[in-house]
Amino acid sequence: MPYVRRVTTTWRHLPPAARAIAVAATDAVAAATARDAEAFPPAAERLAALDPEQTGRVLGAVVRTLLEERHPDGLDGDDVRAALEHAVREAAAWQEVDPQVMVTLLVGALGIQTDEESPLTPVALARNAPLLIADLLQQRPFARYLELAFTEIARAETHDV
């Protein structure tokens, strides 16, 4: 348990609900990055047990930031397709993945609304988002992007008030 304790210390400045998301997301992304087939399912279950709207907002902000950083001149359909194909292929090599959920995660993170019914259940979000994020990270530190996501969300909430 020393890993969880260290992560909890890292996120101690966050409110309890945000801290729970940070810890669960960090564990799930770490397991996905390591392709740890034993650690990933329970980490994803812990993430799925949290508020799906808040979790989706945080993970979506992480995905958006990673995509924007990888494509500073803008993202086109080919870029999104390439990111999707790579993430699905990498995840499918060791874990069950739902390509339609990955599409929903990508377009949702980019702020694109679709008329189709979303396949994004809390379990689908918790199982697929860490796989997508692990692929997009490409060895970069997740904590940095998670912190950026919380900062972005706090700023948006401050402007909404």
Largest sheet: none
Give the DSSP E fraction (strand runs of 2 or more residues): under 5%
Structural class: mainly alpha
* CA(first)-CA(last) distance: 39 Å
Rg, Å, rounded: 15 Å
The global form is globular
The structural domain count equals 1
**How are helices and strands ordered from N to C?**
HHHHHHHH
What is the average per-residue confidence, as pLDDT, rounded to a whole number?
A: 88
The count of helical stretches stands at 8
Low-confidence stretches: 1-8
- How many beta strands in the DSSP annotation? 0
Helix content: over 70%
Report on the structure:
The chain has 161 residues and is mostly helical. The protein has one domain (2-160). It has helices at residues 2-10, 16-33, 40-48, 52-70, 77-92, 99-109, 122-137, 142-160. The radius of gyration is 15 Å and the shape is globular. This is TetR family transcriptional regulator. It comes from Dactylosporangium salmoneum.
Compact summary:
It comes from Dactylosporangium salmoneum. This protein is mostly helical and 161 residues long.
Q: What labels would you give this structure?
A:
8 helices; 161 residues; single chain; mainly alpha; 0% strand
Strand and helix map with partners:
Layout: H1 2-10, H2 16-33, H3 40-48, H4 52-70, H5 77-92, H6 99-109, H7 122-137, H8 142-160
Protein name: TetR family transcriptional regulator
